Amino acid sequence: MNTTEWLSQSVSRLRAPRKPAAPRSTDERLRATLRQDDEAMSPRALRQSLKDLKAIVDPLVSEVEGGRRAQAMMDWYASAELAHRRDLWLLMSERFVADPAQVKKAQAQYAAAVGTPDEAAAEVLYRRATVSPRRRLLQRFSANPDGVRFLVDLRAEMQAHLKADKRLQALDVEMEYMFSTWFDVGFLELRRITWDSPASLVEKLIRYEAVHDIRSWTDVKNRLDSDRRCYGFFHPRLPEEPLIFVEVALTNEIADSITPLLDESAAPADLERATTAIFYSISNTQTGLRGVSFGDSLIKRVVETLHQEFPRLKQFATLSPIPGLRAWLNKTAPAEQLKAWERADELPEGSEDRRALLGWAARYLGQELQDGKPLDAVARFHLGNGARVERLNWAADPSPKGLKQSHGLMVNYLYDLKRLDKNRAMLAQGKIPIAAAIKEHYL
Q: Of 322, 295, 316, which is closest to residue 377 (Cα–Cα)?
């Protein structure tokens, strides 16, 4: 090789893009000296953050001092960039774990004590050994007046990163477990939301409405009219923040279309004739409380409250979207039928294509299970609470969202208060409760 060839190869090597190094683990970063590539915190800053977190739960400091340190961390977090916050999540998830040696020892002691008088005491010791220091850290944050809000928001922000980084799952699961305790329905207050409620609260209805978008103040006023009821669950640590709310229309029959219910010009219904309560929108508001169930208790409490105010009410039903229907049809139904359903709102009554779509929808709601539960998310919620699939409604939601989700179809789920337990038992056996009319006409 001559000098010119050697120089050419050397220059090409220098110009060649360097293959990015594999991301370092948290342990490696904590032991390192220099920041690498796109790491947010430097090793020194990462070690300091870990030190600050440990200081919050230092067993030698008082609750007051621990709370002051937690507040300092919350203040830092409020102004930190997302990448730095993510490093903090990793520290909380990976570095505050139960001592494996103590867990193994306690487990062996418990196994040896089973069947002896020492079994109960050994079980207590084992349970204590498995409790992670992470739980104590979260409790110290929660003691702050704004701590619960801080933690709920932290988990909400973390949700988008869980799939890409499995290391965060320990923190997420721990928070879900603790929130399930802190937000137990026994601590929640059911409150009616009216047009006379604080404007800030009414604004939150507009912001959080997840089923039928609220278009204007006139729209929200219509939903809070005399023939309507809106109830929310509130927690004492988040007093002006509805965790979940339900919108109810009082009518004299089961509604088959959302359009009249959202008609701002319609006169209020006569409450003296109301026999039916229609739950037409249920919205969870806090992403950070994902996995914490409120809905079944909310419906039960609302039914009780409505029954006390309106003894004439005999029927409790929903008018619900079918959010997963169209996506399921695209994977399951024949291509020629999918094409015919593109203009489903124009299909005449009695047409074969219309009947076929109703049949597929009935199959989707009445037969399709995944891991023993209804495939559709809304169906899973209501059927899990003891309702049954009562009626399919054609062109019930002609909005762009309704057409996109389900070709405009909606469904009524009926809450027969005498059959809730029986319906739940059926579902537990893998059988979805369905009204006879749906079986007769569509299945």
A: 322
Q: Does 320 qualify as catalytic in the annotation?
A: yes
- Average of per-residue pLDDT across 41-54: 97
* List 49, 212, 235, 382, catalytic entry: 382
Instruction: Write the CATH number for 240.
Output: 3.40.630.180
Same domain, 167 and 216: no
Task: Check 93, 142, 281, 320 and give the catalytic one.
Answer: 320
- Do 376 and 409 have their domain in common? yes
Which CATH number is 432's domain given? 3.40.630.150
- What is the number of helices (H) and of strands (E) in the chain? 21, 9
pTM of the predicted structure, to 2 decimals: 0.87
In sequence order, which ranges of 183-294 are alpha helices (DSSP H)?
Answer: 199-208, 217-223, 258-261
Whether residue 334 is found in the same domain as residue 434: yes
For residue 241, pLDDT over 90 is answered with yes
**Whether 254 and 335 share a structural domain:** no
pLDDT tens digit sequence for 56-111 = 999 999 999 999 999 999 999 999 999 999 999 999 999 999 888 898 998 998 89
Residue span of the structural domain in which 351 resides: 325-442
Clarify whether 307 is annotated catalytic: no
Mean pLDDT of the chain: 92
Provide the domain count of the chain: 3
* Measured distance CA(337)–CA(358) in Å, rounded: 12
